[in-house]
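User: Hi! I'm working on a homework problem where we have to compare a predicted structure to a textbook description. Could you give me the structure for the chain below?
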Amino acid sequence: MTEMVYGSMPARVREPVLPRWWRTLDKWSMTAIFVLFAIGLLLGLAASVPLAESNNLDRFYYVTRQAAFGGLALVVMLACSMLSPAMVRRIATLGFAASFVALALLPVMGTDFGKGAVRWFSFGFASVQPSEFLKPGFIVVTAWLMAASLDLNGPPGKLLSFLIAAIIAVLLALQPDFGQAMLVLFGWGVIYFVAGAPMALIGSMIALVGAAGVFAYNASEHVARRIDGYLSADVDPRSQLGYAMNAIQEGGFFGVGVGAGQVKWQLPDAHTDFIIAVAAEEYGLVLVLVIIALYCAVVVRSLFRLMSERDPFIRLAGTGLACIFGVQAMINMGVAVRLLPAKGMTLPFVSYGGSSVIAAGITVGLLLALTRSRPQGQMSDILFRRGR
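Assistant: Happy to help. Predicted structure tokens:
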């Protein structure tokens, strides 16, 4: 009777969640991440065995843990990639708040594990580095604030995000962890640049960062020693950098052979900060170029997909996440070949480390969520309409 009076309304046929997720996902970027993780396990089999034996552990102790943490990271990545932009913003904001509180508590409750920098919370069976989880949340919150500032009567998002970035940089510098501090400031600068920052202000920010670097050099013996070593014409062959550079030179194009490398017996951080040296020595330049190509594929494909995005929040957050992911990889490899001073930064999905690989999973998962294809007009359509 109701249909006779009011008429019937056709039911909307909605596509199931999983098929829609798979159809809109950037599958090439996701595949590149899986390949990077597989390469990390392969290199871990070679690089971590000497350290496990020196610590009287099972030969494959670190590889097993890397597989467990990496598997969890991939699950987190896939879960995050299914989020909507609104859910990305909410969850990342909560994660950022928790990580910020944890970072502030490090001087009171943290530990340095004898490395001279208080960066971790130790729980006996595992440790957590809050700065790793802070980065993706910070990028999303910064993008949210800057996108909101573009609205009429919007909040002063650029100023608020800068104040947050400055506080985080100070907290990281106090650990000290100048590498992560520079990465946070870089992420803020990229988002600010994409949001339309004037070049004069960008130049001022670069000058300010340079002044902070000079201050750190004069105030910290640890920083001064690393920079002096980087600027020195000669490299101590018995230093970590000396061993890494020698391994890269010995590897040549095709490497010395699987298991035949020596740098893993000489470097305590061969499975973390200098994993690329193990790859270059045993597998040669060929594998190094493959690794570089995989990182470039993720970053470049993500940026191209974001170019057609109309939502400013998605565009800014996705750009920031893609850039800090790529720049962290670039810094790690740049240190190994002495293009950059030593930073103590891991190679995402390849280096050993629980916090770093899970945080990388969150970063890429959020990036995949933001770069999923959505029904919308192209940016060029808007420009043409405005020109008419």
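For your comparison, note the following. The first strand starts at residue 121 and ends at 122. The radius of gyration is 23 Å. Good luck with the assignment!
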